[in-house]
Write a structure and sequence with these properties.
binds pyridoxal-5'-phosphate; about 400 residues; alpha/beta; 14 helices; eight-stranded mixed β-sheet; about 45% helix
Length: about 400
């Protein structure tokens, strides 16, 4: 999308920002006849609408003030206790609710972390390819991004070690640890340990972004990087676990960093929506509700992922190489015949299917053969039809 000319000068950093190519693209692909595997939205047919309605009605009747009143910057105390318990379980050690800051989605946590740590020229290492929203949040503060490759086992920590050994000194290392956006890869156990070791040795902070952990349909949950180091800020969210529209996420940080994050949050929005926080606290307090809900989500996503993989294998074969994800919402792959995914997209949309080319996920030179398919929102039959159209578009 072209920028509209500004009648008043803008801050210099704004001119350097690129718009989120996926948002621009989604606008084009929302025609009803297009099967979209492009978006990053969770499955709306799995939203717990009835439970949300029942709990909201009960809270409005019994405790409207908590829902409707201003709240504290750090977040609703009972929700922070619940978040600290979850973090303690994934770290195998105690976490204090004082370490928790409830944020307006984990996207806000990315903005706050950037505000606290990044200034022009500060080095920040980041997944390559990486989450576009993180690149956008960081770039406002003009860092020098150090792209570190991601393979089928997540961030290649040995490549980060090489950068450190050659004199680079990132202040932050950002990575999505489970079912990464965009590649679907999960950071292997030994790499988590190595990354923690490097954080201790070189004194950087790892931003462990983990919105998809609950959506695991194969393999075992792995411990948080914060199991082995205090130099970790873990980000989480209710967006993929319950619903994204409430905009409730969180950061679990060492207390010294949490203080600064809360300070900048005050200036940003005073606090996260009371309504969303109180509602989620009530939902997760219902005995067994969350684990049943996660089980149902995993069934939906697991079935859709396998359907997409099977259709790709049957209809596209070796023309598209991909790794099978163990969870999350995305499948990432590469066109093996030298085609560019950016060039393929208009032909695919013409035939009624959309995907996201890999290019915007790169902060360095992109691999133009890559693309991301979401299996979250389409049914198995729609995915199969989408793959049929994709295969047809592939044949010029
Ligand atoms: C890796 C990653 N981090 C953070 C977010 C932001 O999520 P939210 O702000 O809804 O918590 C997303 C959303 O898609 C994501 O994929």
């Amino acid at each position: 999308m072209d920028d509209v000319p500004s009648p008043v000068p803008l801050a210099g950093r704004i001119g350097k920002l690129r718009s989120n190519a996926i948002r621009d693209l989604l606008a084009v692909t929302q025609r009803p006849d297009v099967i979209s595997m492009a978006g990053g939205l969770p499955a709306a047919d799995a939203f717990p609408v009835d439970e949300i309605r029942a709990v909201t009605e009960r809270l409005l009747r019994d405790d409207p003030t908590s829902l409707l009143q201003y709240s504290t910057t750090e977040g609703f105390p009972e929700l922070r206790v619940w978040i600290a318990e979850q973090a303690a379980a994934s770290r195998g050690r105690e976490v204090s609710p004082d370490q928790v800051l409830v944020t307006h989605g984990s996207q806000q946590a990315l903005d706050l972390v950037s505000k606290v740590f990044v200034e022009p020229g500060v080095e920040v290492a980041i997944d390559e390819p990486g989450y576009i929203g993180a690149i956008q949040a960081l770039q406002v503060f003009e860092p020098t991004l150090l792209p570190v490759p991601v393979d089928e086992h997540g961030l290649v920590v040995s490549a980060l070690a090489d950068l450190l050994a050659s004199g680079h000194r990132p202040r932050l290392v950002y990575t999505v640890v489970n079912f990464q956006n965009p590649t679907g890869a999960t950071l292997a156990l030994e790499r988590r340990m190595h990354l923690a070791e490097l954080a201790e040795q070189y004194g950087f902070v790892v931003i462990e972004d983990d919105p998809y952990w609950a959506l695991r349909f194969a393999g075992e949950q792995l411990p948080s990087i914060a199991t082995w180091s205090d130099n970790v800020i873990s980000l989480g969210t209710f967006s993929k676990l319950v619903v994204p529209g409430l905009r409730v996420g969180y950061a679990v940080a060492p207390t010294w960093a949490r203080e600064h994050l809360a300070k900048v949050k005050q200036g940003a929005d005073l606090h996260t929506s009371s309504w969303g926080q109180v509602l989620l606290t009530a939902l997760v307090a219902e005995r067994g509700w969350l684990s049943d809900h996660i089980e149902a989500l995993v069934r939906v996503y697991g079935t859709r992922a396998r359907a997409l993989e099977d259709s790709l294998a049957a209809r596209v074969g070796e023309r598209f190489a991909f790794d099978k994800p163990d969870g999350g919402m995305f499948l990432w792959g590469r066109l093996t015949d030298g085609q560019s995914a950016v060039d393929l997209l208009p032909r695919a949309v013409e035939r009624g299917v959309a995907f996201v080319p890999g290019e915007p996920f790169y902060s360095g030179p992109p691999d133009r053969s890559t693309l991301r398919l979401s299996f979250a929102t389409a049914t198995p039959d729609e995915l199969d039809e989408g793959v049929r159209r994709f295969a047809a578009a592939l044949t010029p």
